Amino acid sequence: MITENVDVVVVGGGQAGIAMSEHLGAHGIGHVVLERSRIAERWRSERWDSLVANGPAWHDRFPGMEFTKHDPDEFVPKEAVADYFEAYASKIGAPVRCGVEVTRVRKVEGKSGFEVETSEGTLQAGHVVAATGPFQVPVIPSLIPSDAAVMQIHSAAYRNPSQLPDGAVMVVGAGSSGAQIAEELMAAGRKVYLSVGPHDRTPRSYRGRDFVWWLGVLGKWDLQTPAPGTEHVTVAISGANGGQTVDFRRFAASGITLVGRTAAYEDGVLRFSDDLRRNIEQGDRNYLSVLDEADAYVARHGLDFPPDPAARDIRPDPDCLTNPIRELDLAGAGITSVIWATGFARDYGWLQVDAFDENGQPDHRRGVSTEPGVYFLGLPWLSRRGSSFIWGVWHDARFIADQIAIQLAYAAYRPMNRSEAVNG
């Protein structure tokens, strides 16, 4: 049973927890990382089989170690990403304890520190880092009753096309997950309907450079404040099939039927908002704006980058855009399964401290919460646009480790009394 005292308890052994461990170790700060399953478990068991990283190997990694078995421009498969984090944890000697679930964290009354209750006993910790990330509880809207004659799963439970019953598939959500799953199903010969909500769409690459490179040189990874309403706008980008630009017009030309945002369900019929054209055109505008900024950067710096006029070609409107479907009888369309690529909610029920706002969301500044001694790591926009990405979480972890080191230094300070000062 775990009974010891420790300076820092890190909850979560994914990319955030491993990054946190590295920086705490560099400061010589005693800590443990508690992981309820295996290191980087979500990469292994809560993602579809063909998933690859959305950024190339040269970019989507920690600074201290490269992907040795993959080319720098390759999009690394999910199992290799999980293996990478396990190897990294071993490399830095991270004190990870797998199979330990944290059930409650609460403030110790009358003194500093926290009581951390786990499936293996209780720890006393001076500081707690919630490094469980943003992908905690799959969200399935309560539109279609569970007893409806259609299989319903979240994208976190989807593995491959053979998992689904024969028939057409409705994919709800057109971010990275929904777009990639819809395209995979179409390639497997399924009839696919894709419900497209508001989104940003980006080029996979442009003028010989990957999108992640353009975000870097244009300063967009370091944006510290999202524009109003953009905190939750999904981004459609993919590393699948060697990396291709997500183009919903191309999807439609290949046989996928696009519909607007899923709005209601009644008696076997799904109804969609009249927003498909608006959503597609807004995605196109975002896409073209990135090309404009990239061209301006090339001209300003006099770079000899190859022109890429084909990137600006926008396909003609498909029929499903000019004559949008507003409702769909699932049985009549032969739809036997629905995949909800509708994101995740956060679950901090175990963290019973005063570190949340009136909406129950983490209340923090750059991960330093309103509850002294409690920190958040791995959340979108924690400090900047790149915060929830592999390399971004590493930099956020360094900042938080610095803050913990500062607090430990203050706590360790003991003023000399007058006699010590005279005799010294």
Q: Are there runs of 5+ residues with pLDDT below 50, and where? A: none
The structure class reads alpha/beta
Largest sheet: 8 strands, mixed
Beta-strand percentage range? 15-25%
Outline type: globular
Radius of gyration: 24 Å
Mean pLDDT, all residues: 94
Total count of helical runs of at least 4 residues: 10
From the N-terminal CA to the C-terminal CA, the straight-line distance is 46 Å
The tally of strands reads 24
Approximate helicity band: 25-40%
Would you write up a description of this structure?
The protein is α/β, with parallel strands linked by helices. It contains ten helices and 24 strands. The chain has helices at residues 15-26, 41-45, 78-92, 176-187, 211-217, 248-253, 276-301, 319-322, 390-412, 418-423, and strands at 5-11, 31-35, 96-98, 102-107, 114-118, 121-130, 137-138, 151-154, 168-172, 192-195, 199-201, 205-206, 209-210, 234-236, 257-259, 262-266, 269-272, 327-329, 335-340, 344-345, 351-352, 364-365, 368-369, 374-376. β9 (168-172), α4 and β10 (192-195) form a beta-alpha-beta unit. α1 (15-26) packs parallel to α3 and α1 crosses α9. The two termini are 46 Å apart.
